[in-house]
Design brief:
single chain; Rossmann fold; 8 helices; binds NADP nicotinamide-adenine-dinucleotide phosphate
Protein backbone atom coordinates (compact mmCIF):
# COMPACT_ATOMS: atom_id res chain seq x y z
CA UNK A 1 0.00 0.00 0.00
CA UNK A 2 1.23 3.54 -0.66
CA UNK A 3 2.00 5.56 2.47
CA UNK A 4 1.24 9.20 3.24
CA UNK A 5 2.45 11.42 6.09
CA UNK A 6 0.29 14.40 7.02
CA UNK A 7 1.20 17.22 9.42
CA UNK A 8 -1.30 18.87 11.78
CA UNK A 9 -3.82 16.03 12.08
CA UNK A 10 -5.26 17.04 15.46
CA UNK A 11 -8.12 18.92 13.80
CA UNK A 12 -9.63 20.47 10.69
CA UNK A 13 -8.19 19.73 7.28
CA UNK A 14 -5.40 17.44 8.52
CA UNK A 15 -7.89 15.14 10.21
CA UNK A 16 -10.11 15.08 7.10
CA UNK A 17 -7.13 14.31 4.85
CA UNK A 18 -6.12 11.42 7.14
CA UNK A 19 -9.69 10.04 7.01
CA UNK A 20 -9.78 10.33 3.22
CA UNK A 21 -6.56 8.39 2.64
CA UNK A 22 -7.39 5.76 5.29
CA UNK A 23 -10.79 5.18 3.64
CA UNK A 24 -9.03 4.82 0.27
CA UNK A 25 -6.80 2.03 1.61
CA UNK A 26 -3.54 3.97 2.05
CA UNK A 27 -1.15 3.54 4.95
CA UNK A 28 -1.45 6.80 6.89
CA UNK A 29 1.02 8.45 9.25
CA UNK A 30 -1.08 11.08 11.01
CA UNK A 31 1.18 13.47 12.89
CA UNK A 32 0.19 15.78 15.73
CA UNK A 33 1.97 18.10 18.14
CA UNK A 34 0.13 16.31 20.94
CA UNK A 35 -0.70 12.75 19.79
CA UNK A 36 -4.26 11.54 20.42
CA UNK A 37 -5.57 8.08 19.66
CA UNK A 38 -9.25 8.98 19.87
CA UNK A 39 -9.53 11.20 16.79
CA UNK A 40 -9.28 8.58 14.04
CA UNK A 41 -10.82 5.09 14.00
CA UNK A 42 -8.46 2.27 15.02
CA UNK A 43 -6.87 0.82 11.90
CA UNK A 44 -3.84 -1.40 11.20
CA UNK A 45 -2.85 1.02 8.45
CA UNK A 46 -2.83 4.04 10.78
CA UNK A 47 0.21 5.25 12.71
CA UNK A 48 0.01 8.31 14.94
CA UNK A 49 3.28 10.14 15.49
CA UNK A 50 4.29 13.14 17.54
CA UNK A 51 5.54 15.98 15.35
CA UNK A 52 6.11 19.68 15.87
CA UNK A 53 7.28 21.05 12.52
CA UNK A 54 9.21 23.85 14.22
CA UNK A 55 11.51 21.41 16.03
CA UNK A 56 14.45 19.82 14.20
CA UNK A 57 14.61 17.00 16.79
CA UNK A 58 10.92 16.29 16.44
CA UNK A 59 11.23 16.17 12.63
CA UNK A 60 14.23 13.83 12.80
CA UNK A 61 12.34 11.44 15.11
CA UNK A 62 9.25 11.47 12.86
CA UNK A 63 11.32 10.79 9.73
CA UNK A 64 12.99 7.86 11.46
CA UNK A 65 9.71 6.44 12.75
CA UNK A 66 7.74 6.95 9.51
CA UNK A 67 10.19 5.09 7.27
CA UNK A 68 9.45 5.14 3.56
CA UNK A 69 6.60 7.39 2.47
CA UNK A 70 5.13 8.08 -0.97
CA UNK A 71 3.44 11.38 -0.16
CA UNK A 72 4.05 14.23 2.29
CA UNK A 73 1.30 16.74 3.06
CA UNK A 74 2.40 19.91 4.80
CA UNK A 75 -0.93 20.94 6.28
CA UNK A 76 0.13 22.26 9.71
CA UNK A 77 -0.40 25.97 9.92
CA UNK A 78 -1.49 28.83 12.10
CA UNK A 79 -3.44 31.97 11.25
CA UNK A 80 -3.16 35.54 12.45
CA UNK A 81 -5.85 38.17 12.11
CA UNK A 82 -4.43 41.59 12.81
CA UNK A 83 -3.00 44.63 11.13
CA UNK A 84 0.78 44.96 11.04
CA UNK A 85 0.83 47.63 13.78
CA UNK A 86 -0.98 45.30 16.18
CA UNK A 87 1.41 42.41 15.62
CA UNK A 88 4.47 41.55 17.69
CA UNK A 89 7.62 40.59 15.76
CA UNK A 90 7.96 37.47 17.93
CA UNK A 91 4.51 36.32 16.77
CA UNK A 92 5.37 37.05 13.13
CA UNK A 93 8.46 34.85 13.49
CA UNK A 94 6.46 32.13 15.27
CA UNK A 95 3.94 32.07 12.42
CA UNK A 96 6.63 31.85 9.74
CA UNK A 97 8.38 29.07 11.72
CA UNK A 98 5.28 26.89 11.29
CA UNK A 99 3.75 27.97 7.96
CA UNK A 100 6.95 28.42 5.96
CA UNK A 101 10.09 27.07 7.62
CA UNK A 102 8.24 24.04 8.97
CA UNK A 103 7.07 23.05 5.48
CA UNK A 104 10.57 23.63 4.08
CA UNK A 105 12.17 21.54 6.83
CA UNK A 106 9.73 18.69 6.28
CA UNK A 107 10.26 18.65 2.51
CA UNK A 108 14.03 18.79 3.03
CA UNK A 109 13.85 15.88 5.48
CA UNK A 110 11.93 13.57 3.13
CA UNK A 111 13.48 14.53 -0.24
CA UNK A 112 16.56 12.28 0.07
CA UNK A 113 14.50 9.09 0.32
CA UNK A 114 12.14 10.23 -2.48
CA UNK A 115 15.10 11.16 -4.68
CA UNK A 116 16.72 7.76 -4.06
CA UNK A 117 13.50 6.03 -5.18
CA UNK A 118 12.90 8.59 -7.94
CA UNK A 119 9.27 9.02 -6.90
CA UNK A 120 7.14 10.87 -4.38
CA UNK A 121 4.90 13.89 -4.00
CA UNK A 122 4.93 16.86 -1.63
CA UNK A 123 1.65 18.75 -1.24
CA UNK A 124 1.67 22.06 0.60
CA UNK A 125 -1.59 23.50 1.94
CA UNK A 126 -1.63 27.20 1.10
CA UNK A 127 -4.62 29.57 0.88
CA UNK A 128 -6.64 31.68 -1.56
CA UNK A 129 -5.50 34.74 0.41
CA UNK A 130 -2.54 34.57 -1.99
CA UNK A 131 -4.87 35.32 -4.92
CA UNK A 132 -6.80 38.30 -3.55
CA UNK A 133 -4.95 40.01 -0.68
CA UNK A 134 -7.38 40.59 2.20
CA UNK A 135 -6.94 43.27 4.88
CA UNK A 136 -5.80 42.37 8.43
CA UNK A 137 -4.07 39.25 7.18
CA UNK A 138 -0.83 40.67 5.84
CA UNK A 139 1.46 38.40 7.86
CA UNK A 140 -0.54 35.25 7.23
CA UNK A 141 -0.88 36.07 3.50
CA UNK A 142 2.86 36.73 3.29
CA UNK A 143 3.57 33.31 4.82
CA UNK A 144 1.32 31.54 2.32
CA UNK A 145 2.72 33.56 -0.61
CA UNK A 146 6.20 32.45 0.49
CA UNK A 147 4.95 28.86 0.62
CA UNK A 148 3.60 29.20 -2.94
CA UNK A 149 6.86 30.60 -4.32
CA UNK A 150 8.87 27.94 -2.48
CA UNK A 151 6.67 25.12 -3.77
CA UNK A 152 6.62 26.27 -7.40
CA UNK A 153 10.39 26.55 -7.46
CA UNK A 154 10.90 23.29 -5.56
CA UNK A 155 8.69 21.57 -8.14
CA UNK A 156 11.29 22.34 -10.83
CA UNK A 157 14.16 20.89 -8.77
CA UNK A 158 12.19 17.86 -7.60
CA UNK A 159 11.01 17.02 -11.13
CA UNK A 160 14.62 16.13 -11.99
CA UNK A 161 14.12 13.03 -9.84
CA UNK A 162 10.51 12.17 -10.67
CA UNK A 163 9.16 13.91 -7.54
CA UNK A 164 6.16 16.23 -7.72
CA UNK A 165 5.52 19.32 -5.56
CA UNK A 166 1.99 20.76 -5.54
CA UNK A 167 -0.19 23.36 -3.85
CA UNK A 168 -3.75 23.16 -2.54
CA UNK A 169 -5.45 26.51 -1.95
CA UNK A 170 -8.47 26.32 0.38
CA UNK A 171 -10.86 29.24 0.76
CA UNK A 172 -12.37 30.25 4.08
CA UNK A 173 -13.44 27.32 6.29
CA UNK A 174 -15.34 28.59 9.34
CA UNK A 175 -16.03 25.05 10.64
CA UNK A 176 -12.42 24.14 11.49
CA UNK A 177 -10.69 25.37 14.65
CA UNK A 178 -8.51 27.68 12.56
CA UNK A 179 -9.93 31.06 13.65
CA UNK A 180 -10.09 30.12 17.34
CA UNK A 181 -6.61 28.58 17.28
CA UNK A 182 -5.24 31.68 15.56
CA UNK A 183 -6.65 33.99 18.23
CA UNK A 184 -5.50 31.82 21.14
CA UNK A 185 -1.95 31.50 19.80
CA UNK A 186 -1.41 34.84 18.09
CA UNK A 187 -3.79 37.17 19.95
CA UNK A 188 -6.05 39.68 18.26
CA UNK A 189 -5.63 43.09 19.87
CA UNK A 190 -6.49 45.35 16.97
CA UNK A 191 -5.11 48.89 17.52
CA UNK A 192 -7.96 51.38 17.94
CA UNK A 193 -7.35 53.40 14.74
CA UNK A 194 -7.98 50.21 12.73
CA UNK A 195 -10.89 48.63 14.66
CA UNK A 196 -13.75 49.91 12.45
CA UNK A 197 -11.85 48.90 9.30
CA UNK A 198 -11.20 45.36 10.60
CA UNK A 199 -14.77 45.05 11.94
CA UNK A 200 -16.18 45.99 8.50
CA UNK A 201 -13.92 43.45 6.81
CA UNK A 202 -14.95 40.67 9.22
CA UNK A 203 -18.65 41.48 8.72
CA UNK A 204 -18.18 41.22 4.94
CA UNK A 205 -16.21 37.96 5.30
CA UNK A 206 -18.87 36.38 7.52
CA UNK A 207 -21.67 37.36 5.12
CA UNK A 208 -20.14 35.30 2.32
CA UNK A 209 -22.40 32.45 1.21
CA UNK A 210 -19.67 30.26 -0.27
CA UNK A 211 -17.31 28.48 2.12
CA UNK A 212 -14.72 25.70 2.13
CA UNK A 213 -15.29 22.38 3.87
CA UNK A 214 -12.62 20.06 5.25
CA UNK A 215 -13.96 17.42 2.85
CA UNK A 216 -13.26 19.67 -0.15
CA UNK A 217 -9.68 20.14 1.03
CA UNK A 218 -9.20 16.39 1.49
CA UNK A 219 -10.54 15.87 -2.05
CA UNK A 220 -8.14 18.47 -3.51
CA UNK A 221 -5.19 16.89 -1.69
CA UNK A 222 -6.29 13.48 -3.00
CA UNK A 223 -6.18 14.83 -6.57
CA UNK A 224 -2.77 16.45 -6.03
CA UNK A 225 -1.34 13.21 -4.68
CA UNK A 226 -2.94 10.66 -6.98
CA UNK A 227 -3.22 12.42 -10.37
CA UNK A 228 0.19 12.46 -11.99
CA UNK A 229 -0.84 15.41 -14.20
CA UNK A 230 -2.64 17.40 -11.47
CA UNK A 231 -2.38 21.19 -11.82
CA UNK A 232 0.30 23.01 -9.80
CA UNK A 233 -2.43 24.79 -7.79
CA UNK A 234 -5.80 23.24 -6.97
CA UNK A 235 -8.58 25.29 -5.36
CA UNK A 236 -10.43 23.63 -2.48
CA UNK A 237 -13.95 24.82 -1.69
CA UNK A 238 -16.70 26.73 -3.52
CA UNK A 239 -15.31 30.14 -2.50
CA UNK A 240 -11.80 29.06 -3.56
CA UNK A 241 -13.11 28.07 -7.00
CA UNK A 242 -14.73 31.51 -7.33
CA UNK A 243 -11.43 33.16 -6.31
CA UNK A 244 -9.60 31.14 -8.98
CA UNK A 245 -12.09 32.19 -11.67
CA UNK A 246 -11.82 35.85 -10.61
CA UNK A 247 -8.02 35.75 -10.43
CA UNK A 248 -7.78 34.41 -13.98
CA UNK A 249 -5.26 31.97 -15.42
CA UNK A 250 -2.16 34.12 -14.80
CA UNK A 251 -2.63 34.36 -11.03
CA UNK A 252 -4.19 30.99 -10.32
N1 LIG B 1 -9.52 27.18 7.95
C1 LIG B 1 -9.32 28.05 6.98
O1 LIG B 1 -10.14 28.96 6.76
C2 LIG B 1 -8.09 27.91 6.10
C3 LIG B 1 -8.14 28.51 4.84
C4 LIG B 1 -7.04 28.39 3.99
C5 LIG B 1 -5.93 27.67 4.40
N2 LIG B 1 -5.91 27.10 5.63
C6 LIG B 1 -4.70 26.34 6.00
O2 LIG B 1 -5.07 24.99 6.16
C7 LIG B 1 -4.20 24.37 7.12
C8 LIG B 1 -5.04 23.66 8.17
O3 LIG B 1 -5.91 24.59 8.75
P1 LIG B 1 -7.24 24.16 9.57
O4 LIG B 1 -8.33 25.03 9.09
O5 LIG B 1 -7.41 22.72 9.58
O6 LIG B 1 -6.84 24.72 11.03
P2 LIG B 1 -6.71 24.00 12.45
O7 LIG B 1 -7.96 23.24 12.74
O8 LIG B 1 -6.31 25.09 13.39
O9 LIG B 1 -5.53 22.96 12.24
C9 LIG B 1 -4.19 23.36 12.17
C10 LIG B 1 -3.33 22.17 12.51
O10 LIG B 1 -1.96 22.55 12.44
C11 LIG B 1 -1.33 22.09 13.62
N3 LIG B 1 -0.13 22.83 13.95
C12 LIG B 1 0.00 24.13 14.28
N4 LIG B 1 1.28 24.43 14.55
C13 LIG B 1 1.98 23.27 14.39
C14 LIG B 1 3.34 22.91 14.51
N5 LIG B 1 4.27 23.81 14.90
N6 LIG B 1 3.70 21.63 14.26
C15 LIG B 1 2.79 20.71 13.90
N7 LIG B 1 1.48 20.99 13.78
C16 LIG B 1 1.09 22.26 14.02
C17 LIG B 1 -2.38 22.20 14.70
O11 LIG B 1 -2.01 21.44 15.83
P3 LIG B 1 -2.37 21.86 17.34
O12 LIG B 1 -3.77 21.35 17.54
O13 LIG B 1 -1.36 21.17 18.15
O14 LIG B 1 -2.26 23.35 17.41
C18 LIG B 1 -3.58 21.66 13.94
O15 LIG B 1 -3.55 20.26 13.91
C19 LIG B 1 -3.30 25.48 7.66
O16 LIG B 1 -2.06 25.44 6.97
C20 LIG B 1 -4.06 26.75 7.30
O17 LIG B 1 -3.19 27.84 7.14
C21 LIG B 1 -6.97 27.19 6.49
Amino acid sequence: MPKILITGCSSGFGLAIAHKFLDAGWDVVATMRTPRNDLLPPNDRLEILRLDVTSADSIAMAVEAAGTIDALVNNAGVGMLNVLEGTEMSKIRELFETNVFGAMAMAKAFLPQMRARRSGVVVNVSSTVTLQPPPALSIYSASKAALNAFTESLALEAALFGIRAKLVLPGSAPTTGFGKNAVSRMGMEIPEPYTAFVHDYLTKLRSGTEVTTAGAVAEAVWRSVTESDAPMKIPAGADAETSFREAGPMLA
